[in-house]
């Protein structure tokens, strides 16, 4: 399992500044390597996505950028998001129509997500064996795989534990 995106219950043990700074350093290195520019709006969009530690929708991002005086036209935000996606710096969580910072932007991979139904925390995990198996199975069927999205929903450990504690407390009262 790879890096977990922040859970509200973990806030006091988490260094947001380190995450954001690390993501920006990776972005700058990748852009330099690819001969791309990390413009002010692209950079700020990436910062806002990482600062949220939750999937952030395009219009939420648009509103935050507009508050800060950036061009508030939707095409500006979508171009920045497309750039960040194509550079591998963020992932799109399809079921939420939102964007999440990539925990492993320094290497090409497919992002798979565990999404908590309760707190909406999203955890990215990277298992190449799953990807390889899907490619092999698709090829055996003569299918050309063009896109791949794996999002598993359920309860994260913290919410599961809180739910069990609440059930126990309710049982103890009766």
Automatic annotation (TrEMBL):
Name of protein: Zinc uptake regulation protein
Q: Which family does it belong to?
A: Belongs to the Fur family.
PANTHER family from the entry?
Answer: ZINC UPTAKE REGULATION PROTEIN
Query: What does the record note about the cofactor?
Result: Binds 1 zinc ion per subunit.
What Gene3D superfamilies does this protein's entry cite?
Answer: 3.30.1490.190, Winged helix-like DNA-binding domain superfamily/Winged helix DNA-binding domain
Note whether Repressor occurs among the keywords.
yes
Could you tell me which Pfam families the record lists for this protein?
Answer: FUR
InterPro entries hit by this protein: FUR (IPR002481), Fur_C (IPR043135), WH-like_DNA-bd_sf (IPR036388), WH_DNA-bd_sf (IPR036390)
Q: Which domain of life is it from?
A: Bacteria
Q: Which UniProt keywords apply?
A: DNA-binding, Metal-binding, Repressor, Transcription, Transcription regulation, Zinc
